[in-house]
TrEMBL record:
Occurrences of domain LicD/FKTN/FKRP nucleotidyltransferase (ranges): 24-131
Ranges that cross the membrane: none
Species: Sulfobacillus harzensis
Protein name listed in UniProt: LicD family protein
GO biological process, one term: glycoprotein metabolic process
Amino acid sequence: MDSDQLRAVQIKELEILLAVDRVCRKHHITYYLIGGSALGAVRHNGFIPWDDDIDLGMPRNDYERFLNLGTRELGEKYYVQTYRSQPNFPFTWAKVNLNNTTFIETALQNLKIHHGVFIDVFPLDGVPRGLACRFIQNFLFKALMRVPISISPRLTFWRCAAMDWIISRVPDDRSKVWANRAWGTERECMDRAVYGIPAFMNFEGHKLPVPQQCTKYLSNFYGNYLELPPPEERHGHYPLVVDLTKSHEDYFR
């Protein structure tokens, strides 16, 4: 994407984010900008200039409430995509897609799923206390991650359901440590207090929630988060097709 097209995609993603924010405020659902979106809020007051996605995190209980409410509350303009709503979808987190747009990621191009412009919504799960239990959880999750994603819908659904069951065994309200286990990285295991009561920061002219101890969150996640990466690492998802005027379905006829 050139810079103009990237900015157009970011504006559409912001539209999705603000729609999700309205639903969450209405129903008192806690969420945070996480990952690169939290970094963008702190370092750039909005998107990282070369970023082409938005990442949200919700405590598991809030995440499940959002999935139950989202489709109805967001309306026909959006599509809440999970392995439950679309069995070919190969991930254990959700995407909120903007209908009548196209954003086809190269790695997913052969899957018959919704390929609209999207934002990611990740569950934040409790982490087992014991190292042995955490090791077993990681081992089972990563073993399932290695199963190819281009399999039948029934097997894809089973794979994701099993992974989701594994990472959600520890209730978020009973654990001192939370993590975005759906993404599967150890660096996202943090004290629950780091997330805490959301703080609000400027993101593209809107006050949106980030982890309460955002500086600590970003330091744990990125190290020296204020240092810009080298130019060769400044890139997004490398989409195969981007079209903000046509439905993704037009490309699969």
